[in-house]
Amino acid sequence: TSYPPSDQTQLFTAAQRGDLGGVAMLLRAGASPSTIDASTGWSALAAALISGHCRVAEALLQAGAPVVAADHRGNTSVHALAAGASASDGDEVGLAFARQLLNLAPDASAAAGAANVDGATPLHLASQHGKRDLV
């Protein structure tokens, strides 16, 4: 049986694809910025960050997306930022967003020190992925 996608599934997909207009529309329609993908435990915020969509991530943060929500492997949105693709919206935007995330999100400092199930913190991942500006 096939079910129509819910607003939550659509929000996660739009975030992962970097569809800022779609994300904004779904949030206005009542989709929760705390959307979690059941199969991975990824948040919509983490999906945007791992794909390098900083403007989408910023919209999700402004709507109240939690930074410390961890996936099934213990990765938070800060892990996704550290390990993710370079910002598709431009490296300067990505670096500025990383600083904003770490400085303004009330729970980002806790997430910045969190280790995943492999023992890797966001700092480890940033170093492994050559993101010297985040280290």
Automatic annotation (TrEMBL):
GO cellular component: cytosol
GO biological process: one example: cellular response to tumor necrosis factor
This protein's record includes keyword Repeat: yes
Alphabetical UniProt keywords: ANK repeat, Repeat
Gene3D superfamilies referenced in this protein's UniProt entry, alphabetically: Ankyrin repeat-containing domain
Pfam families: Ank
Coiled-coil residue windows: none
Name of the protein this chain belongs to: Uncharacterized protein
